[in-house]
Every structure is written in structure tokens, then in C-alpha cells.
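pasting input
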Amino acid sequence: MKYSALSLLRNALSHNRNWPEAWRSPKPKKKYDALVIGGGGHGLATAYYLARDHGMKDVAVLEKGWIGGGNTGRNTTIVRSNYLWTEAALLYEKSMQLWEGLSQDLNYNVMFSQRGVYNLGHTLQDMRDIERRVSANRLNGIDAEVVTAVQLKKNIPQLNTSPTSRYPILGASLQRRAGVARHDAVAWGFARAADRLGVDIIQQCEVTGIRRDGDGIIGVDTTRGAIDADRVGVVVAGHASVLASMAGIRLPIQSHPLQAFVSEPLKPVLDTVVMSNAVHGYISQSDKGELVIGAGIDAYNGYAQRGSFPTIEHAMQAIIELFPIFSRVRMLRMWGGIVDVAPDACPIISKTPVNGLYFNCGWGTGGFKATPGSGWVFAHTIANDEPHELNRAFDLQRFESGALIDEHGAAAVAH
Amino acid sequence: MLLIDCPWCGERAETEFSYGGEAGITRPKDPAALSDAEWADYLFMRNNPKGAHRELWNHSQGCRRWFGIERDTLTYRIAGTFRLHGKDEG
């Protein structure tokens, strides 16, 4: 059923009892043309674009838990494309362009809200870096501007711009097209749209082995039986190394816990997104009124979906430094996700030494914003057995050639 | 919060320590003799296991010495700490 004002009205008349399920729950078949391992936003987007743009409809998405229950549902929902280096900027900007039409494309409201993202500068060097990044963005056709502390105070009155604070705010970069989106809706929207194109979404189906015949892929073993496939795309974020070891390949990935938390709901107080690299905190306000706050990663490797208290304390110090007005707001919930960090803080969207096996990982702390673009280029890579121009630089080979794309600290903040 | 048993100072809070990554990676004696793939493996590729992990830590706000920990990356339980010598020395 297509969602429309008419379908809303018709279902309202029957007290919303007759809505059909948004996607099927089929039994896995014995064989598919292509499998996507991982039913997060990136995996579901990959399946959707495989079916829509490449005519591959015999596709299944395998998810060990429930769709969108991993990092897709655990992030702080920020979307922006103001990356420094051209390779990264063009990839994230492709994603931004897809975001701008996504609700229409999917016939599902992903609540994409272009409320702007400010990246604060606290030192002269911060401001020089911001000038450089804003200029680089504009040369790449990405909207960006430098904002002074006076303008900041006018736009965000609650922000502490006092020159005597411990880390005084001197200015910021602003991307007006950036913003936030409803993360659950992104997973659900892609799942429903992919399902309508014939993709099987199989939940509670954990991959336990990857079967290869010499240099080629044959299929996978799962908790619901063996499934054969000609092509397998792996998009499992924090568990990329676990799947890679099943396939007998090595990745330059380290998994770390990354935490976020929300406050009790407040009246509208913050109508934009504020991020600070120097004090390391980022904050926005959800439609429910909760302040959504992100912390940094724990330094050590970890697979438990929780982090350490010192990291939370550090993020809170940063937020209260920026917004003293929030010092007595109580925090409601906190959680962690496992992020896959690459040495250059850039993703790996690549073929592998195994024919027919593709990996999409290494998004680290900033994958949500890339959801549609990641799926779009990964679908191209799987369908054509060749990367798209936009992800050619993000291959596994770059760790041998040395052509890293160093976005650590070069981008607006660590995600 | 991890409670880490430094081999020299005893149990201290996690915040006194810095993490140094996977243990047991030694710098190749003759880097020029390696292929690009072997060099990349030394520089970047990591086991990143879900489970038992031997890793390096530095007691950066204490005795400032490096040592090793065997820790489970899923439960975060520390099985033991060990002093570095020979090829484990970071």
C-alpha cells in the first residue's frame, strides 16, 4: 500500500486496525543472486538500490537481531557533508543529495530536518582550520560558511560565548543544509521500499560462517540454515572484523564502544545542531524535546554495547561548558553502540581478495549521515563488481598503497 | 569503569591508564625487505577479536610503564596482567 493522505484517511475511518504489515517476514530461500549481511540502514539501503537501480531483485538481507536495532538506532542522527578532503566530501555530499529527496523516494517520512549544523572553533588554530575547511567545501560545491561569535550569540542565545570561559568560543562553521533525521524511520523506510521491490528481509538470522571455494564465494551458513549466493555484501559495522575472520581475510578495523544519551524532555530550547571538536561534545534537541548528546569513543577495543562512565562525564563537562543553562537537566537514558574505526577515519567500501565478497565498513563514529550514499555506492560496487567513481578511493588497497584519506580531526568533529 | 592491576603499582582506576592496542606486534627487523602487503599488515591490520584479547596498556598517570593485559572484549573481564619482555615489548 502506498502511504498517502487518502490512505491515512481510509485507515483512520477503520480505527487504524487494517494497516498491512510494512514488510514481509519470509523464510530464507536456498539460494539468492546476492546477499547483504547486516540489516542496519546501510545494508537495507544497499538492498534497496540493488533492486531499484541495478535490477537485482533476487536479494536477501540477513539480520542477526532486528532491523535498525544496531548502530542505526543508537546514533545521534546528525547528517552533514562538510568534510575536508575531496574524496570524502563528494561521497558525503552524494549522500546529502539523496537525503534531500529520500522521504519522497521511499514513500516514507524519514523526518529529515535541515536545521543546520554548527561546528565551533575555540582557538585561533581552530578558526584557521574552519576557514580552510569552509573554503574546501565551497570549492567542492558544498554549502558552508564561517560564523563569528557575535552572530553565534544572536542565532543561539543559550550558547556561552563569554570570552572568559575556559575554552572561549571564537566562531564556527555552519552548514545550513545539514541537520537531523529520524533514525528508526530510515531503517523502516528502506526496509519497506526494498521489500516492495522484492527483497527478502530476514531477521533473527545470524551468519555463522562464510563459505568460499578457493578464491570465490559460495554462500553463508546461518542460524537458519545454509544459504548460497553468487555475491555477498557485508555491512555489519562493529562486527566487520568478526565476519572478515570467517572469510579468512584481515581488516584494518578496531571496534570501540561509542556512547550517547538523552535528557528528560524539555520545551523547545535548541533549534539547530551544535558540535565542538575541542571540548568534544555535540548536541541537538529531538522532536520529543529530549536533548540528544553524543560522547566520544572509549579508547580500548570493545564489543559490549556499553561504555565507561568517565567518557560520559567528559561529554557532560563539554555540554555544560557550552550550555551552562543545561547544568540541572537530568539525563534520562544512555546507551552504547560498537563502531568500526579505520586508521584514517574513513570507510572501506571495497572488493576483497575473495571474488564475489564485498565489505562496507570502517564508518567509525559517523556512519548515519552516509546511510543512503553508502548503500548507493555499495549497490553499484556489488552489481558491477567494480567500485563507483565516488568510492574508488575507499578501497582496501589504500592501506598498501598508502593513499589514506586522513579525515581524523580534519572533518568537523570525530564523526 | 575498569579496575586495572598494574604489575608495579597494584589496582588503579581506568582513568590513570592509556590504551596501546593489540600486544605482540613487533616491528620488522628489515622493513625494506617486506612487500607492501606485508608492511600494511604490520602497520594497519589487526585481529580485533570478539573475546580474549592481549593488549598493551601504559600506566600514564602512575609509574608510566608499559605492560600487557589479557581482557575479554565482550565482557570486559580482565583475566590477568603481564610484564613485557622480549617480543611483546611495545
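fyi The CA atoms of residues 27 and 43 of chain B lie 9 Å apart.
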